[in-house]
């Protein structure tokens, strides 16, 4: 058994680009940046940014194209797929793409505008509590309406007590062997 699963939270480095296959299905591409931060031996903060190419198909790609912009914070879940190509210098290279099957828009609606339209580390980490709309390849929750207020945070319910089983008088009589 093997698993090919990727989960990324990052900001778009460019607006999504959508094209349509002959079948009419949408294919949307964009890149997102993720950061890794640590302190070096001298105590200075170091940051490494990784860029990931994302591809979304069908309705999921159409939703991304409609609602995401450069600077938007997004959660992507999918799989890694490699492809080989020849560079301008004739050398064969390998590119790795993320084929997304789930997307969650994170942050506020004004995130892209407040981030200056670009990738901005000062925007902070992922804020899962603000994540509004969840979209997946199989379907999606209601798309956000421009005038509707954000949904209320889910409430925690007290756990229900487990039902108590009825007492059993003589358990040996019911065993079939």
Automatic annotation (TrEMBL):
Keywords assigned:
DNA damage, DNA recombination, DNA repair, DNA replication, DNA-binding
Question: Where would I look for the motif Important for interaction with partner proteins in this sequence?
Answer: 172-177
Coiled-coil residues:
none
InterPro entries reported in the protein's UniProt record? NA-bd_OB-fold, Primosome_PriB/ssb, ssDNA-bd
Task: Tell me which Gene Ontology terms the entry assigns under biological process.
Answer: DNA recombination; DNA repair; DNA replication
Q: Does this entry carry the keyword DNA repair? A: yes
Q: Which GO terms describe its cellular component?
A: nucleoid
Q: Which GO terms describe its molecular function?
A: single-stranded DNA binding
One of this protein's Pfam families, by short name?
SSB
Q: Where is this region: Disordered?
A: 123-177
- This protein's source sits in the domain of life called Bacteria
- The protein's role, per its UniProt record: Plays an important role in DNA replication, recombination and repair. Binds to ssDNA and to an array of partner proteins to recruit them to their sites of action during DNA metabolism.
Q: How does it assemble?
A: Homotetramer.
What is the name of the protein in this document?
Single-stranded DNA-binding protein
